[in-house]
Each structure stands twice: as structure tokens, then as C-alpha cells.
Amino acid sequence: MIEKGKISASQMSVMMYHAIIATGILFIPKTVFDAAQQDIWISPLWAFPLGLLSVYIAYKLHKLYPDDTIMQYSEHILGVFFGKVIGFILLLLLYTSISVMVWQYGEFVVSEFLPHTPKYVVIGMMILLCAFAVHGGLEVIGRLSEMVFPVFFLLFLVIVVLLLPDIEIKRMLPVMENGIMPSVKGSLALYTWFAQFGIIYFFFPYLTNREKGMKWGGISVLAVTITLVLTNIIVILVFGRVTGNFTAPLMSAARYISIAEFLSHLEAIVMAIWIAGTFIKICVFYYALVLGTAQWFNLSNYRSLVLPTGFLIGVFAIQAFLNSAEASEHFHEVSHGLTDTLVYGLIIPMFLLSIAYIRKMKIFKQKGREKK
Amino acid sequence: MKGVYIFSVTAVAVLMFIYQWSKIKSTKKKEKMVFSFLMIIGWSLAVTYIVFPNMDSPAKMVDHVLTSLRNIFLGIFS
Prior knowledge:
By secondary structure, chain A is mostly helical.
């Protein structure tokens, strides 16, 4: 096997938690608010089944081909040529997806904290750091995410608790003013994030306790849902109907904290947890990309591809959008369904699974005939 | 200015090449080929983007393809 390291199922679940929540925690409230208004905290509950579904499909495929990742079993299922085509599409979508993430990171850091630093320096440093982690292998990323998780969660809770004096319950009333439809429409935007759970198919074969994979994957989806509900509730309770005016409402809310005049300017905490989370997120996707590329070319080692892939990601990320107007156009597009994450996280695995089942049925039928 | 950018991108690519090339075992021809393939794609894309800064990125192209796919899909049902 190309990757010799092993991670435990709980490590995988923490990795996936970061991979979804890192950018979500800042940008989800605004994206969902456009459709759901004051019901944004209900939307994650509607998106929850979709996350569970993409984990379940990946797990079912893993059960059929326990030692392979999607790059390898797509060839088993569809034959070499079509398998390679699907793999190529998958890699292309992963490249675009990760370039958007890195662009978001660069844009946000430059606009909020380091206005005089050129963006390619910010992006380049992050990619270099991630390259070291990815070069270390899967175990390194697993342990890093385990290390980051308690800090992340603790600081997140600190922010939530410190915002409690500013909340007003009446801002989220009336609940479900226009029925459940607005919140369901809002959950369409969340599918982008929840479909990213599909990338879990790159990690299932490297688990030490494979039978627990589904359980911990489910726990990860649940944890993401709870965190998002908590974030959305706190944001809507603090800002009410003006939530839509901020790009990153949680950040602005943290800026709002001022307790006894000395505990203020806490947006640095949000930035710190956000950068730690984004680091894990980029690492997870970067690793999946490098491993996928190596398997697509049938190489025996993926480590030599880490640097060129990073270079390519950097080039794509700097060029991803020319300005934030183009980016917001992209995210507007994204919030109306059918996105790249939905394609690689859900549609392609679902397609592969259905073909695999049809083939299996055929084999059984042939065997039945032979017996007669 | 563009010349400086192209020069620095080339410098980064050459440094990466020098660092990684010696680490790949000489028996592994395929790895060397894939490595140089990715490096050449990356470098040429970087230079193209520097020379034509308004060119579309893959993210936008994928967006475009997916939106037209969605429109075709919705057109069937409506």
C-alpha cells in the first residue's frame, strides 16, 4: 500500500470535523442568512442527513473494496479507462475546491489582519507549512488535528460564553415565521460544506479499527451540526436582522465583546482558532489530492509529489478570483445547489456505488444460472 | 514588473526541482516523469497567469460548466 501510516477512527473523525468546520464557522451564518433569515440555526439540522449520507456511501464503498481508496476502486468498478476518467474529474474538482479554500484564507487574512502583506506571501507560507505536514504523512495530520481540537473547542466556547451578556432572545423570534421552507432553502447553501464529508473515502482504508469507521464518521457529522447550530444561534442572538451585512459575523461579534473595559479585541482569538482549523483543513484536502494523484499514476510513493502539487495549488489559489466581487458571485452560485463539492462528495460516489451493486447482482445471477 | 515575477516563479520552481530531484531514487523513472510533468504544468500555468492576468481560473471554469449542466438538467424537467 502506498501509505504505510495508520490512524484511529477517532483521529479521522477529528480531522473531518476540522475539514468542514474551519471555514464554515465564519462564513456559514451570512451565506445561510440570505435565505433563512432568523431561522439560520435550524438549517444545519436539515443538512445533517446529507452529511450522514455521504459518509454512509463512502463507508458502503469501503466495505466492498476494503483496501482501496476511490482512485483504485473506480477502476475496479468501471474498468481502467472510465475509472481513470472519473479519477481525473475527481482530481480536477479537488484542485478547484482547495484553490477556493486557500484563496478564502488568503483574502481573509489580508483584509482583516495583514493589510500590507502581499497575498502570495500569506498563501505561499500556508502552503509551505501544509507541505511539511503532508510530507510527514497521514499519522502526522491525524495527531496534529487531535492536538488542535481541544484548543479550538475551548476557545470557541470562551467566545460563546463571553458573548452571552450581549444576547437578546427576541432577535430570533418569531421562530419559523414563514414555515419551515426558508430554513430548508438555507440548508441548500450548507450542502456545500456537508458534502465535503465525502472526502472521507480517502481515509477509510488507513484506519486501525475499520469496523468503527461509520460510527466515528457519524459522530463527526453530529459534532459539526452541533457546532454550526451553536454558532448560528449565537450570531442571530447578537446581531438579529443585520447578520447579512457582515462577511464573517462571528468575527464581528467577537469584536463586539467588551467586558469591564479590559477584556476586548477578542477577534484575535477567533483568528487564532480559525487559522489553526484552516491549517488542518488545507492539510486534509492537500493530502487527499497528493495521494489521489499518486494513485492515479500508479506510483509507489507519494512524497515526491508534495511540492509540485503545492506549487500548483498556490498558482490556482492566487488566480482563483480576481477580486471579492467575483468571489461573492461564486458563493452566490454555490448557494443555489449543484456545486463542485456536491459532485465529488456525493454524486460520483453514489454513481460508483450503484454501478457496483448492479455488477454484483449480475455476478450473483450468473452464478445462479451456473448452478441450475 | 512581470519579468521580476516570472524570474521569481522560475527561481522557486528550480529550487524545488533541485531539492526534490536528488531525493527520488534513480530506479524510479515513473516518479521522475510524473514529478517533472506536474512541475512543468505548474510553472507554465504560473507564467501564463502572470502574462495574462485576466485569464479564467479553474474554479470559475468549473462553476461555468456546472451551471450550464444544471440549466440543462432543469430544462429537462420544466
